[in-house]
Amino acid sequence: MAAIQRANEEREVSQRLHAGAVEQSWFEREGFPLSGNVEVKTPTIIATPDGSRPVEPETLTCEGLSARLIPDTPHHRWVLEHRLGFALEPGGEWRSGVPGLHRWAWPESPAYVQDVECGSGGVFSFPKIPDGRYFFMAGLNSPSYDSASRVDFVLKPVVVSGGRRRPQLIVVMEYGAVSRPSKK
Q: Average pLDDT of each block of 10 consecutive residues along the chain (184 residues)?
């Protein structure tokens, strides 16, 4: 019994640490075009070193930056949590202030993710996406009150369904989703 349990545990660890058949077969399934847009609403009050101050609310988009769909598999969850430091919250995560970064390279083979550039107003279009559970990741143009040249990132779990007749994927996050400053 102990040998079977150990073999199962080793298989589970292997699935998390190494991309395998699940990731490889994901995009071999039938896929259809998927379009949509992403918007993140900024807060009306921000923290400052000496308290807080009101700011005009803004809508951040991924215009000119990348949007990515990452299949929700045990391995990709491990990469997002342990290699990239995301919390994988059900409501999503907004990571603010990545200095000088305009594209965030996937740390492994890009064959297992779909990556596109966002157009005007944060519109994106993926050419061939199978139905399933994904993590949507996108770079965001920083709010005007952030004077440094930085890029924010958003990560949100999404479900793509509907085959040929799928609706647009609208990713909207309000302030209140998990928001963390980037590790410097």
A: 53 52 70 90 79 83 91 90 85 71 69 90 92 91 70 88 89 59 39
Q: Which residues of 57-80 are buried (b: 16+ CB within 10 A; e: fewer)?
A: ebebbbbebbbbbbbbbebbbebb
C-alpha dihedral sign at 11, 13, 16, 20: negative
Cα–Cα distance measured from residue 96 to residue 155, given in angstroms and rounded to the nearest whole number: 11
- Indicate yes or no: pTM above 0.85: no
Question: Distance between CA atoms of 114 and 144, rounded to whole angstroms?
Answer: 29
Copy the structure tokens of residue 98.
């990545």
Residues with Cβ within 8 Å of residue 109, at least 6 apart in sequence: 19
160 — phi, psi (to 5°)? Answer: -105, 125
